[in-house]
Design goal:
The protein has 152 residues and is α+β, with helices and mostly antiparallel strands. 28% of the residues lie in helices and 30% in strands. The mean pLDDT is 85.
Length: 152
């Protein structure tokens, strides 16, 4: 596991409709349309915090950035986040993603069953990273930045 460099600002954008595959696989995702000019990290699976700008709520997440190679239906890069602790519908909301660590490369799996098994492991790894000292430091920074933005 490689740590991503500390991010001073989150990847922000609006939650849009995706293909709906995540929900069908038991991992509903919020699909982020990144703000223009945003720096999107390289394709991989990451651990991170999700800040909902409308409510200020913060959720634990596993973030996938890539073209969904297991399904081979697009070359477009998507940013999708699975929130571990809420299954709300975020459509139309603005969110910020604060990256804690890179978990693994995005890969093509032989089957959807293999993908689901890997996703379960990704969530477990993400939970451990979010509970780590680094995870808590990133959370503290996210909360401070969100409070600063809210007071402006």
């Amino acid at each position: 596991m490689n740590d991503v460099r500390a991010v001073r600002a989150p990847l922000t954008g609006e939650v849009v409709h995706g293909a709906g595959r995540g929900r069908g696989l038991g991992f509903p995702t919020a699909n982020l349309a990144a703000d223009p000019g945003s720096h999107v990290p390289p394709p991989a699976v990451y651990s991170g915090w999700v800040v909902r700008h409308s409510t200020g709520a913060v959720h634990r997440g596993t973030i996938s950035i890539g073209s969904n190679p297991t399904f081979c239906d697009t070359t477009d890069v998507h940013v999708e986040v699975h929130c571990h602790d809420v299954s709300d519908d975020f459509y139309g909301e603005r969110i910020g993603l604060w990256f804690v660590a890179r978990i693994r490369d995005t890969v093509k799996f032989a089957s959807t069953d293999d993908l689901v098994r890997a996703a379960h492991l990704d969530v477990l790894r993400s939970e451990a990273l979010l509970a780590s000292d680094r995870g808590r430091r990133v959370l503290t920074g996210a909360l401070a930045a969100d409070a600063e933005t809210a007071s402006v």
